[in-house]
Amino acid sequence: MVFKMKSLRLWLVLPLCVLLFAEVASAGQANVFIYHRFDENRYPSTNISTEIFAEQLAYLKQENYQVLSFGEVVRRIQQGESLPEKAAALCADDAYQSFADGAMPIVREYGYPITLFVNTDAVGSSGYLDWQTIKGLHAEGVGIENHTASHPYMVEMEEGESFAAWRERIKKDILKSQQAFSQQLGYQPKSIAYTFGEYSDEVIGLVKELGFESAFAQQSGVVHDKNDLFTLPRFPMGGPYATLKGFIDKLKMKPLVVLQQEPVSPLIYKENPPELLLQLETADVDMGRVNCFVQGENSCTVAAVIGRPGWYRVIAEQPLSGRRNKYTLTVPGKKGGWHWFSQPWVNAERPALQSSLDVKKGSAAAFQADVGKAGEAVTADQ
């Protein structure tokens, strides 16, 4: 994939005199990494060599990072406790056999916590772990969490399916997996990883209804003390990103804290390219040097919204290509380092949407009309 970038200088045309929270009180964060396959070279996009994985864990130890379990990360956010300034968390999705064979000997060597998100229908199939192995991993302290039963496209309706039927199908799929965990492990997980990293307002509402306390996606980003617990980011470690340098670069990233955004859902609906409005905590960053990335032969811009201090409009110059894409913002910190935020986008063929989304789009349009054309607030350098 080709990434194009624009470095932007923000110029306010009018004089100006940081999810819904006050200013972030601490610099605590957790850089979370997601893995899939280990030493399975025939699946390059989701694979990492165990040699590089070992180097990454060695670096964590060498640099005195505190490796937290997912449960501890979530607990601290729930209870309003600060995260450490140098913290990481590790997880693997899909419960492939190579996790036990390749990753676990290295994890045991360092004694780090790690979480495995399991899609239960695949358990015992060729190339996947069986329940006996998963029970053993759980007994030795590996966190076992939910990744649905059948690994469906959670935001997509099947052909001819109504919204109500879609909702019932996804609900039954998740409940089926929860029942399997109850039968095999004696508990039901409280955290879920969205399949393919895809979620929506409707999916978030459903997992909350089913009793989950947190949910992880696959957009890159840094977890911080004020994160929305149902859109938690993770840095993928597969394919070209699965290197020691890539790991170190992501470890050094800091969060670009989003206080509010519109929309929250990554579903592309009616408008492509989608418009993203962000209220950012900007005290520690130099927004005059913000970078905007989008996948494909495309570019994106960031503009200060006139009349709304702290608000920025992000939009690509051309329609987003592919099923999954994202806007990624990186901003240099005033005290050094880089801050990161990524918004995923999903261009589903049959998106599962409530009719109320039209109202949301109308509200967003009204908001934009109120603040004026934000695009006039910046000039961009190639």
From TrEMBL:
GO terms of molecular function: hydrolase activity, acting on carbon-nitrogen (but not peptide) bonds
Lineage: Bacteria, Pseudomonadati, Thermodesulfobacteriota, Desulfuromonadia, Desulfuromonadales
Keyword Electron transport on entry: no
Keywords from the UniProt entry: Signal
A Gene Ontology BP annotation from the UniProt entry: carbohydrate metabolic process
Residue ranges annotated for the NodB homology domain, each copy included: 86-288
The protein, known as: Polysaccharide deacetylase
GO cellular component labels: extracellular region
Signal peptide: 1-27
Chief site of localization: secreted
SUPFAM superfamilies: Glycoside hydrolase/deacetylase (SSF88713)
Localization: Secreted
One Pfam family here: Polysacc_deac_1
